[in-house]
Amino acid sequence: MQAAVSPLLPPAYREPVLGDLQERFRERGARARWLGYVVDVVTTVPHVLRSQMRRVVTRGSAVPGDLRSRAEKLQTLVWIRNAVILFSALIVIGVFLLNARGVWHFNESVSLAMTIGWVGAAWRQYALRGRSTVVPTSLSWQELRAFHRRELTRQMDLGCCEFVYWSVPAVLLILYALAVAVPGFRVRAGVMLLGALAMQNCAVAWAHRKDRSRYQRELDRLDQEVEQA
Fold first, then answer.
1. Which residues, other chains included, contact 190 with Cβ-Cβ below 8 Å and sequence gap of 6+?
2. What is the DSSP string of 81-129?
3. Is it the case that residue 24 has pLDDT exceeding 60?
4. CB-side exposure of 136: number of CA atoms within 13 Å?
5. Coil, strand or helix: which one is 60?
6. Domain that holds residue 86
7. Cα–Cα distance for residue pair 49/54, rounded to 1 Å
8. By mean pLDDT, which of 19-23, 28-32, 50-54, 194-198 is the weakest?
9. C-alpha span between 41 and 39 (Å, rounded)
10. Is the same domain home to 82 and 168?
């Protein structure tokens, strides 16, 4: 259960909130433990998210000079990015379920492939490979610098290959429909869907390039601090 709740929490709050939830879980009786845990999660997580958003808005975009503050700021921004992307995946699933009614046609197969592609790529890219982590508390300056550098490098290495890979089944279905003239599948719709997939991958690549530039500036700053030390 903690593995499912952990990604919902900002890194700065993750350990204390999970510890508090686990303590309440142990204090309850055997019959009420799981129901009480779910209720605690539903009531606690929104409050923590609201507190974190208020903290980000209050801080603004300025990055403090302290290395620990910068490392925590990075993890917070990574968590916000991941939360937005995963929330968009839920919206995509909801839109598909609303439209997938009545008789199943080839169009629904294409929509399913596109939905699975976005959700699968988002989960692999941001919930697994690009997840946020907690900044350890007991680290020397050198250890903290090494940790921060590893995290920056890990985020820079994400790329957009996952989204390209997961969009291949939908592209193949669309090309198949255009090649054999599947009944009910219009050429114009197929071209528009191919364009939408291309724009999706271009948008992901542009966002990653923008993030990569910001991470590179932070890496350069770390190198300058070492030279000045």
1. 174, 177, 178
2. HHHHHHHHHHHHHHHHHHH--SS--HHHHHHHHHHHHHHHHHIIIIIII
3. yes
4. 12
5. coil
6. 68-228
7. 9
8. 50-54
9. 5
10. yes
